[in-house]
Amino acid sequence: MRLRKSLVMLVYLLFVLVPIYWLVNMSFKSNREILGGLTLWPTTPTLDNYRVIFTEPTWYMSYLNSLSYVSMNMLISLLVALPAAYAFSRYRFLGDKHMFFWLLTNRMAPPAVFLLPFFQLYSAVGLFDTPIAVALAHCLFNVPLAVWILEGFMSSVPKEIDETAYIDGYTFPKFFIRIFLPMIRPGIGVTAFFCFMFSWVELLLARTLTSVDAKPIVAQMTRTVSASGIDWGVLAAAGVVALLPGIAVIYFVRNHVAKGFALGRV
Amino acid sequence: MKTYNNKAWWLVLPVFVLVAFSAIIPMMTVVNYSVQDIFDPSTRYFVGTEWYREILVDPRLHDSLVRQFIYSFCVLAIEVPLGIVVALSMPRRGLGVPFSLILLSLPLLVPWNVVGTIWQIIGREDIGLYGWTLNSLGLDYNYASNPRDAWITVLVMDVWHWTSLVALLCYSGLRSIPDVYYQAARIDRASHWAVFRFIQLPKLKNVLLIAVMLRFMDSFMIYTEPFVLTGGGPGTATTFLSQTLTQMALGQFDLGRAAAFSLIYFLIILLVTWVFYTAMTHNDDKG
After folding, report:
1. TM segments (chain A) (predicted)?
2. What pLDDT, in 10s, does the model give residues B191-207?
């Protein structure tokens, strides 16, 4: 039984890792080697593909663009979601359940539905092709997500703590910032991670709301694909670099990944 | 117990304003478009429900809707059982736990277009490991020209991308089962199947509900991965709802039709979300 279990796990992990290995493998090959035939590892490893990414402005600027709208989105989402999540976890109020459901529908709504109106809304207010447009558009699914995750973490803090603090003479803002926020620090970290993640991986809205100045990395990659000759090596290298931020932070939130992906409901 | 206090609305207000700006205003625009025929910003006619009547008999909608339902069904049918099996095979303690958790999460952290790129590369018969292997085994596999191969590739890609999510959710559900349950089962000499059926599965009900909802919704709005992998082709074999809609709205600027399409799409989503939400909160209330 033990053995069979480990075997299943091993086979599945292999299934997960082989495609990623193949991407990394290709990113270290020259295009001649890639198209010359199948090799299981780079016979003449080269860093040329990465050099292209870090020296050509269209490539590294697109990374910076992505990072800028992703961090803006993360900040906005956290700032508005923190008080709202507190309200949902502590109080009942008029229409609270409907509000919560309505937030959920926004997480579930297909971005494609909002494509056209977003395009026109942000063109009308002059924000088209700026990182802030993408950051605001991504709030559509990230704010509900942040509220749901934070609400889960806040509900596990006993209510007596609030009451004691109020009796001790704390005002709400002071209590919230000085006592409550430090208590749910892991929750805030996890929420930030998931806002970061979902904004980082999204393509459709990010591509539609930008053209030249704010072009994100995900769009830059698809546009290279549609060009006549595909530069496989550079494409693979760009993919690897796009993977890195997620891998860099996953270690810190490993125990909470399930909670985050489940909208805080586990 | 939560106290009843309507002042809590002040705390929710920022979220309300922000989400209203990015959801209600655009939604109203869509409704507005769906009942008008627009030639240019100054020439527009009110056409009532004409777009709806047209789109409801549009073969493009029918085809991609059918394709979408088959696809979402396949995704659930493969990923949920597989996810449960993987979760049951997770190591219980030791170094293996964080190790497997991190490796399992990997596909979830890959940008969606990179997922497409990865499978685009690995499926090719000349430079990709899988495509090359299949072809040298004598199978005539080519996802770019054969609709069946394209379908299978998109499906396997989705399984690769999202089964970990189901597995992680089930794993955290399993972890919440106290050891006493297992000890009792051992005393009763319960079989592995009985342990699964009467101890683990009931405890997994809640997380499975979430997993099924998330996987259904996300596969129902899938866009990026097939777009990068096959571009919806060959022909329209892997063109799902979101892509049909995007083509209509941005490719052909067919505003009225696209708007009516969006609303129908959205209503389906709303209905399904409501069903799941009711089931979820129903469970919450019970404990």
Report:
1. 7-24, 67-88, 100-120, 132-154, 175-201, 232-253
2. 888 888 888 888 888 88
